[in-house]
Design goal:
Strand order of the largest sheet: 2-11-14-13-12-15
Number of domains: 4
CATH class of the largest domain: Mainly Beta
Length: 382
């Protein structure tokens, strides 16, 4: 009988025991907190001029190459102009012939007018002389236009730089034939000023709401992985870009490239600074996600009172976190949060420096059902 009493007492003690939970905590500290939007983009010159050719021909000479500095009006290429020069000479000859015909027609018209007044020729002959004069005048005008067109085509054989800048691309070689049929072929690409560049970044639609003109930008390029460059948002374009059902918006970022280290075409990994707090109280985001388990063993998030600390149509800035009191027990505290960088969040109100907030627990309190010593599964020893 004594053995039976000992078994029953041991079973009751085992069933009523509780496992004491342990909590992982962190002390709140102050520091800089930056909320940013990340994206990628490509560096481009602010003014990128494509120098083309309006006529067809063979490249006879090139006066500029890659990285050549050029000025406005400088000759950069010369086409073979022999055929266009011949066209100009032919047009000038036809104009001279038309002008000679005009002089003859003017003399015939004056003579016909005098004879008509003397009633020596009929009205029809006078009208024919006047019509011939007008026709030759029109022919002179047509030949003059032909000469001007031939002169313009001859001048187009010489290619000039339209801006001051540097050649970043040369697409032709000496002896190559360019054909300007439907569109003008591109001979050179000239960047106006490489000391001032821009980034065309594709910002996702989920982040574009926080991006505005005038915001500071930090970015890196693969060529200088240990250096941080700076820029500024100058334009957020409203035209959406959709690629494989992903909507982005082109954001233009101005960059000062006075050292000429950044080159066109480089890929920039940018961070648009949405908000910056130089010295603010920070709480780990893990503490915002932590919830005490309820007696059923499930985590039930504690919610702020309806409408607390928010305007209509906005999300509530009030969250519930847990801190350890002097006895080591978790206590819920409602706080007001601000900006976040994804790892930590700004605490506007509700906590102070040094408070210990719970980020996780290593064990959960459990309550076991007392074992029945008279259960059929329990071994009976008498």
């Amino acid at each position: 009988m004594k053995l039976r009493h000992w078994i029953m007492a041991l079973a009751l003690l085992t069933g009523c025991s509780k496992e004491k939970p342990t909590y992982q905590t962190t002390d709140l500290t102050r520091g800089e907190l930056i909320q940013s939007v990340t994206a990628t983009g490509q560096l481009n010159p602010v003014t990128n001029v494509q120098v083309g050719c309006q006529i067809s021909g063979t490249i006879e000479q090139l006066f500029a190459d890659y990285n050549s500095p050029v000025t406005n009006g400088q000759i950069v290429a010369q086409l073979d102009a022999r055929s266009y020069r011949a066209n100009l000479l032919q047009a000038e000859g036809e104009l001279a012939s038309a002008q000679a015909s005009l002089k003859l027609a003017q003399i015939n018209a004056a003579r016909a007018e005098q004879l008509f007044h003397d009633k020596l020729i009929p009205q029809a002959d006078f009208d024919q002389a006047v019509a011939t004069l007008q026709q030759t005048q029109a022919q002179v005008q047509i030949r003059t236009a032909t000469v001007e067109n031939a002169r313009v085509n001859l001048a187009r054989c010489t290619i000039y730089s339209p801006v001051d800048g540097i050649v970043i691309s040369r697409n032709v070689d000496v002896g190559q034939t360019v054909a300007a049929s439907l569109n003008a072929p591109t001979l050179f690409v000239i960047a106006n000023d490489l000391t001032k560049m821009q980034i065309n970044a594709n910002v996702a639609e989920a982040d574009i709401g926080g991006v505005a003109e005038g915001q500071a930008v930090e970015f890196t390029v693969d060529a200088f992985p240990n250096r941080l460059f700076h820029g500024q948002v100058v334009q957020v374009r409203n035209s959406p870009l959709t690629v494989q059902n992903v909507v982005t918006y082109d954001t233009v970022i101005a960059v000062n490239n006075h050292e000429l280290k950044l080159k066109p075409g480089m890929t920039a990994n940018i961070s648009v600074i949405i908000a910056r707090r130089p010295d603010t109280l920070k709480i780990p985001n893990a503490a915002l996600r932590f919830r005490l388990p309820d007696p059923t063993g499930t985590n039930t998030p504690a919610r702020a009172p309806a409408g607390a600390g928010r305007k209509r149509g906005e999300r509530s800035p009030t969250r519930t976190v847990y801190v350890l009191d002097a006895a080591g027990k978790p206590q819920p505290v409602q706080i007001t949060v601000g900006i976040t960088d994804g790892a930590a969040t700004e605490v506007v109100a509700g906590l102070t420096d040094g408070d210990k907030v719970i980020t996780s627990s290593t064990a959960r309190p459990t309550t076991a059902t007392p074992a029945n010593p008279f259960s059929p599964t329990m071994p009976r020893r008498f």
